[in-house]
Amino acid sequence: MTEFKHFINGEYVASRSGKTFDNRCPVDNRLIGQVHEAGRDEVDAAVKAAKAALKGPWGQLTQAQRTALLHKVADRINERFDEFLEAECRDTGKPYSIASHIDIPRGAANFTAFAETLANHPTEGFRLDTPDGKGALNVGHRTPKGVIAVIAPWNLPLLLMTWKVGPALACGNTVVVKPSEETPATTTLLGEVMNECGVPPGVFNVVHGFGPDSAGEFLTSHPLVDAITFTGETRTGEAIMKAAAVGLRNISLECGGKNPGIVFADCDLEKAVEGTMRSAFVNCGQVCLGTERVYVERPIFDAFLARMKEEVAKLKLGRPQDPQANFGPLVSQEHRDKVLSYYRLAVEEGATVEIGGGIPDMGAELNDGAWVEPTIWTGLSDDARVIREEIFGPCCHIRPFDSEEEVIRLANDTDYGLAAAIWTESSSRAVRVAEQMEAGIVWVNSWFLRDLRTAFGGAKQSGIGREGGVHGLEFYTELKNICIKL
Ligand code: NAD
Ligand code: 6OD
Question: Which domains does the chain have, with CATH numbers?
Fold first, then answer.
C-alpha cells in the first residue's frame, strides 16, 4: 500500500488534519493506497511556497538554464520509465501496451517540446514614426505570469498534467498541481524527479484532494494564484471560471467533447475502420478527443458497421501487464455506474445494440473491477441524450447520412466543439468539410496525431483558450510593451 503525500516546497508532507482517502485499482477494485487530503492549510503552504520560489534561484535562471533543467526532467522520467508506467497503470488500469506508447513518453516529451519552442520564440518589435522625425522603438517583453494552478483529470494523468506543467515552467512560472483524486501516483512521483534534477524547492508543488470544498476549490480560490489552467468536465470548468473571476485571474479551460467522426464513401475503408476503432475505444473510450458519434455515408454503411463489429469482437480485455491486452477497465466503479447508466438509457431511447452493451465476465479475480463491454449502437434519433451528452466510455453510435450538407449539419449539432475526424480520399472534400467543422481540432484520415507545435483547445462548451506551441504563451506569460523614444 502506497501513501500519497503532498509535495510542498520540495518535501513530501502529510495533511495536518490526518485526513486520507482510499486509492483503488480499477482492475479488481483492490485498495492500493491512501491519499492525504489537503485542507486550506496545505494549499496555502503550497501556494506560498510557489510564490516565494518565483523570487528565489528559479527566478534568476536564464532561459537557457531553464531549458537545460527541463530537458533533465524529461530524461529522468525516461530513466524511471518503468516506475512511471507501473504507477500509471495501477491507478488507471490501462494496459502497459497503451501507456508505454502514449502516456509516459508524452509525459516526458511535454517538458522538452515546450522548453525548445519557447526558447526559440522571437519577441515582437515595431518602429514608430514620431512628429520630431526621431521615432520610437516598441519591444514586446514577456515575463512569467506567476503562480499557476494546474487542475488535472484522471484519463491521461501524467500526460495531461505535464502538458500544462511543461509550458508553465518553460515560461518561468511556478506551479501548484491538483491531480485527480482518482490518479495521484505519477504526479506524486514527479516530485522526486524534480528534486533529483535540482529544480529549486517551491517551483513544483502538489496537493491532493477532491474538487468542491476540498483541495481543488481551495486552490482555485486562493488569492495568491495568478492563473488557473484546467482540464476536465465542462461543468467543473464553469465552477473554476467563477472562482477565477474573483481577482480577475486568467483561465485556460480544456473541457469535454461529443466528437463526430465522418466517414465518406470515398474513404479507404480499412483506414477509416482502424482510426475509428482507436478513436472510440482506446483508453477504454476515456479520451476527450474520442469519437462517440460516427456518421457513415449510406453506400458503405453496412460494410463499415460489419467491419467495426468484427474489430470490436477482437479487442482483448485483460490486466495491464498482459502484453496481448489492448482494452482495460474504466477508471473507477463510480465512472462505470455513469457509463452503464448510458448503456441502459440507449436501450430506453430505442437503440439497437449492435455489440456489447453490458458487463463482461472477467472471472472471479477481476469481476470487482470497473470493466464494461465495448459497445456500438445504431438507430438512435438525433435528439437522444446518448447522442447529445458526453459519456466518456468505450461506446459509439453509428448513423448513415446521404449528403455532405446533411453530415456537416449533424456533426455541428452539439453544444461541444473539441475535435472531429474526417475520412475521405478526396482532398478537396476534406478541406471543404474541415473548414466547416465547429471544432478546435480536425483530423483528416487520422486521429490523435499530435504535433506539439500546433494549437490545441476547444470551441463552444469544450473550452476557452488554446495551448500548445507558442499559443500557450498568451496564457503562461504577461506581455509587456516597452516603448523607447529615440
Ligand atoms: P472533472 O471535471 O470531474 O475533474 C477534473 C479535475 O477537477 C479533478 O482534479 C477534480 O478533482 C477537479 N475539480 C472538480 N471540481 C472542482 C472544483 N469545483 N474546483 C476545482 N477543482 C475541481 O473531470 P474528470 O472526470 O477528471 O475528467 C473527465 C472529463 O475531462 C471529461 O469531460 C473529458 O472530456 C474532460 N477532458 C478534457 C480534455 C481536453 O483536453 N479538452 C482532456 C481530458 C479530459
Ligand atoms: O495531446 C494532448 O496534448 C492533449 N491535451 C490530449 C488530450 C486528450 C484528452 O483526453
Answer: 2-255+462-485 (3.40.605.10), 259-451 (3.40.309.10)
